[in-house]
Design brief:
globular; alpha/beta; 9-stranded mixed beta sheet
Length: 256
């Protein structure tokens, strides 16, 4: 049997301020190959290009990745603010109905960072554009120098920075074999109100929701706020998550 195919969502970028492209991070693709042993297939986060039904007829799983752009606030009833740009409304228009379709068809779905936030919005929840502005919250953004520039060392940027407490006997604790983990932290936007279709299974030490699942999903439908794609080849927590996703993807492929 051929390797399973995992659709990896693309993000809109402008190259040289002239060419519009759809891009997906190399680490996401490498994680699919190295840990899941599957073929990554980038699809456009643009409803003019990507037909969701046709896509799901082709793939055995969906990976919703992180991205620079925030989910557009009108998707959860809030007016946009230029301070919180950029947005990628094309990706919103694909990702949100795609999430619902994956849950309905039991297509394995794994959301990371923006993908995690999209899952909460698709499940009826809302987001805060700067989670660090909420009382008692820590700065979850990536480490920066005193000049404000992003730290040049990726091992510092993606280092584990805080703990996440998992629901005992939940899906995540079952996959990871523990109720307490440490993760990296590289986000500004975060969950404000949890969606009615969503169950939170991981909470950071400051109360920020970091791990979720769809309440009534019959298939794999999990999301994490941290960047699990960075080091799943070596990090046992992130490796276990991608392996569990891979097991679900292969089971779905066999059941076609």
């Amino acid at each position: 049997m051929a390797r399973p195919v995992i659709g990896v969502i693309g993000n809109a970028y402008s190259v040289e301020n002239r060419f519009t492209v759809q891009m997906a991070g190399q680490n996401n693709l490498q994680a699919v190959v190295d840990v899941v042993d599957a073929l990554p297939l980038i699809f456009a986060g643009d409803p003019k290009i990507t037909d969701i039904s046709d896509l799901l007829d082709v793939v055995d799983g969906i990976l919703l990745t992180g991205a620079r752009a925030n989910v557009h606030p009108t998707r959860f009833g809030v007016e946009p603010d230029p301070r919180h740009e950029p947005y990628d409304e094309g990706r919103d228009s694909v990702a949100l109905p795609l999430i619902e379709a994956c849950v309905a068809r039991s297509v394995p779905l794994f959301g990371i960072c923006r993908g995690f936030q999209e899952m909460n919005v698709a499940g009826g929840g809302s987001l805060h554009p700067e989670i660090r502005e909420l009382p008692g919250r820590m700065n979850h953004r990536m480490p920066r120098l005193e000049t404000g520039e992003i730290h040049p060392d990726p091992t510092v940027v993606f280092a584990d920075r805080h703990e996440v407490r998992l629901t005992p006997d939940g899906i995540f604790s079952g996959i990871l074999g523990t109720d307490l983990i440490r993760v990296n932290s590289l986000h500004g936007q975060g969950v404000l109100e949890i969606g009615e279709k969503i169950i939170a299974e991981g909470i950071a030490e400051d109360g920020t929701i970091e791990a979720i699942r769809f309440r009534n999903a019959e298939g794999f439908a999990l999301g994490v706020q941290w960047h699990a794609e960075y080091d799943p080849q070596d990090n046992p927590i992130n490796k276990s998550l991608f392996q569990a996703f891979g097991d679900a993807v292969k089971a779905y492929q066999r059941g076609r």
